[in-house]
Design brief:
The structure is a single chain. This protein is of the alpha/beta class and 311 residues long. The chain has a single domain, classed as Indigoidine synthase fold (3-Layer(aba) Sandwich). It is built from twelve helices and eleven strands. The chain has helices at residues 8-15, 26-29, 36-50, 71-78, 92-97, 106-116, 144-151, 167-176, 208-220, 241-258, 265-276, 280-310; strands spanning 4-6, 20-23, 54-61, 64-67, 85-87, 102-104, 120-122, 155-158, 181-184, 203-205, 227-230. Helix 5 (92-97) links the parallel strand 5 (85-87) and strand 6 (102-104). It is globular and about 55 Å long. The protein starts with a strand and ends with a helix. The model has no long low-confidence stretch (mean pLDDT 95). The chain binds pseudouridine-5'-monophosphate (PSU) and manganese (II) ion.
Length: 311
């Protein structure tokens, strides 16, 4: 198997059974504007540390897979001049072989995290099932994030899936692929920029310890893989619903007008939200990812504690 360059601090924490949290890099390189992305990268690593865990931001640099980045490597990931490509799980082989620089999506990050021995991962929004293209009834644009969760024993904390997706279809597919979705202090699936969607969830947890317990049980049960912990955006950053619905309708029109497809859909839509909302969605995005990563760290700490008492 390809060797993963694990940062010394991350390696030491893993060897000692301490809590480690994986962080993705696509949200930095493709999801947030330059400048702001570097600040968010720093903040995410800080909140993980404050919660008592070690952050491991994951990316591919010069064809090498990294788990845990130095400050200079984070600078590189956040600099648009670096031209990082967006790497889903299928892109890892080509990027490694061709010596490329790339930022990993949830799917790519989950695969690498698991291979490195990291079980908990915090992000903004999970990819999902896109809305159908004009003239089509169903969409074949289904994020590989869903398969990665179904096949990789990791716990991912997200604020649901971006509201630009077909949420109902995404939840159905997660059920088909046997991924449990736990609402964190909620009975409803969160709506990314909004705290709630109309979709009810079957499972709810109210503490990081409960989430850790579910994940520990789930990954040991026969034939099981990942768990999605769905954490609503902090109330003070929730977007006004009318503004949200307007931005969404305009964004979908923009995709149609410009013929945007494939892996460009998510970055183009996020960029539209950020400019058209005058930065409101950017603050919301930062707040939710900070909150998710904090919760991921709390769960990782509980998990590490539970594992150490068992031994
Ligand atoms: N959530 C965000 N910002 C992002 C993404 C998610 O708040 O930039 C990224 C993640 O890396 C996710 C990816 O895995 O978008 C999904 O892209 P696609 O729909 O092309 O699979
Ligand atoms: Mn896609």
């Amino acid at each position: 198997m390809t060797s993963i360059a694990i940062a010394d601090e991350v390696r030491a924490a893993l060897a000692a059974g301490q809590a480690v949290v994986a962080l993705e890099s696509t949200i930095l390189s493709h999801g947030l504007p330059p400048g702001r992305n570097r600040k968010v990268a720093q903040r995410l690593e800080s909140v993980v540390r404050e919660a008592g865990a070690v952050p491991a931001t994951i990316a591919v640099l010069d064809g090498k897979v990294w788990a845990g980045l130095s400050q200079a490597q984070l600078d590189r990931v956040c600099d648009p001049e670096s031209g990082l490509v967006k790497l889903s799980r299928r892109d890892l082989g080509p990027a490694i072989a061709l010596g490329q620089d790339g930022a990993t999506t949830v799917a790519g990050t989950a695969a690498i995290a698991h291979a490195a021995g990291i079980g908990v991962f915090g992000t903004g929004g999970l990819g999902g099932v896109h809305l159908p293209l004009p003239g089509r009834v169903t969409s074949w644009d289904v994020s590989a994030d869903l398969d990665a969760l179904a096949e990789t024993p990791v716990l991912i904390v997200s604020s649901g899936v971006k509201s630009v997706l077909d949420i109902e279809a995404t939840l159905e597919l997660l059920e088909t692929r046997s991924v449990p979705v736990l609402g964190y202090r909620t009975d409803h699936f969160p709506g990314f920029y909004l705290r709630e969607s109309e979709h009810e969830l079957s499972w709810r947890v109210d503490t990081p310890a409960q989430a850790a317990k579910v994940f520990a049980a789930h990954r040991q049960a026969p034939g099981q893989a990942g768990v999605l912990l769905a954490n609503p955006i902090p109330a003070e950053f929730e977007m006004d619903r009318e503004l949200h619905d307007r931005l969404l309708a305009d964004g979908i029109q923009l995709l149609k007008d410009q013929g945007v497809q494939g892996r460009d859909v998510t970055p183009v839509l996020l960029e539209h939200f950020h400019t058209a909302s005058g930065g409101v969605s950017l603050d919301a995005n930062e707040a939710l990812v900070v909150s998710n990563v904090t919760l991921a760290a709390q769960v990782a700490v509980e998990l590490a504690g539970a594992e150490s008492t068992r031994q």
